[in-house]
Amino acid sequence: MQVLTAMILAAFVGYGGAWYMGLLEGNFALLLFLATLVTGLYWLAEKFYFLPRRKQAALDLEKASELRLAELKKMGITQVDQVVPDAQARLLMQPWWLDWTAGLFPVIVAVFLLRSFLFEPFKIPSGSMIPTLLVGDLILVNKFHYGVRLPVLNTKITEGTPPQRGDVMVFRYPPKPSLDYIKRVVGVPGDEVAYINKRLTVNGKAIDTTALPDFFDEDQMRYFKQFEEKLGDKPHRLLNDDDRPAFVQGADDFAFRKNCQYSVEGVVCKVPEGQYFMMGDNRDNSLDSRYWGFVPDKNIVGKAFFVWMNFGSLKRIGGFN
């Protein structure tokens, strides 16, 4: 078992190392599921096989010691060094290969359940959601709001609340599902979404915007025009870059592309059933549904709702719209 366990642990370390070095595309959900499964099997083996055997060996040692003491007493020897307690402790001690598997199971299964069905942490890697979310924000995503899904398979097992316009949603990037993206829901199934000359219209109704003071981007060291927009129940902020044209350049050949019409002024799309149209709040610096298409329901990960840490600015901690 020691050799087998060493091989299993080496496989996990090798996978993680190759992922870290960029030699393969990692899947943390799958890795965590396998770790839970493997440590769970070791935990069961420890509870119902290895631990009872160690306890029986310790009990047998105690009985053998008692018989030996009884024999020595008959011979008139009463002063005998007692080494049995130390020997029993060594027999009961969990070996390293169980300590690193069965011993870790309670922690790993707790993380697996929390991450799979309740809340999952993410780090914002890009500026596509500025000013709502900044690069380096560590956020929490509600995994059950849109319905509970099976880990790894991502199959929905409860309905939950359908995504609403204005929600900030994490999803699997359609062209490459191993990547997680975060954008704002702009169009739900059946909507006609138009983004023409940098003005958003949904189902023929222009979304009202209110001009705000310019936003200073510390990374780019420049100001951007900032507006307040209300897609859902609560308003949110967005940015526009006057130096970027409204024309959508380099759109992919995605599924349901025939539902979109592109022009020099922008794009108009009819959202298919079971699909969602996503856009970043940094409107002119966001690779979103205008470029790679719609997000299918099966790709949904959860609803982003809270910044729990930003090591560059503790003022960022809190909820957002």
From TrEMBL:
<dbReference type="InterPro" id="IPR019758">
    <property type="entry name" value="Pept_S26A_signal_pept_1_CS"/>
</dbReference>
<keyword id="KW-0378">Hydrolase</keyword>
<feature type="transmembrane region" description="Helical">
    <location>
        <begin position="28"/>
        <end position="45"/>
    </location>
</feature>
<dbReference type="InterPro" id="IPR019533">
    <property type="entry name" value="Peptidase_S26"/>
</dbReference>
<dbReference type="InterPro" id="IPR019756">
    <property type="entry name" value="Pept_S26A_signal_pept_1_Ser-AS"/>
</dbReference>
<feature type="transmembrane region" description="Helical">
    <location>
        <begin position="97"/>
        <end position="118"/>
    </location>
</feature>
<keyword id="KW-0812">Transmembrane</keyword>
<dbReference type="InterPro" id="IPR000223">
    <property type="entry name" value="Pept_S26A_signal_pept_1"/>
</dbReference>
<protein>
    <recommendedName>
        <fullName>Signal peptidase I</fullName>
        <ecNumber>3.4.21.89</ecNumber>
    </recommendedName>
</protein>
<comment type="similarity">
    <text>Belongs to the peptidase S26 family.</text>
</comment>
<dbReference type="Pfam" id="PF10502">
    <property type="entry name" value="Peptidase_S26"/>
</dbReference>
<keyword id="KW-1133">Transmembrane helix</keyword>
<dbReference type="InterPro" id="IPR036286">
    <property type="entry name" value="LexA/Signal_pep-like_sf"/>
</dbReference>
<feature type="domain" description="Peptidase S26">
    <location>
        <begin position="98"/>
        <end position="309"/>
    </location>
</feature>
<keyword id="KW-0472">Membrane</keyword>
<dbReference type="InterPro" id="IPR019757">
    <property type="entry name" value="Pept_S26A_signal_pept_1_Lys-AS"/>
</dbReference>
<keyword id="KW-0645">Protease</keyword>
<dbReference type="GO" id="GO:0009003">
    <property type="term" value="F:signal peptidase activity"/>
</dbReference>
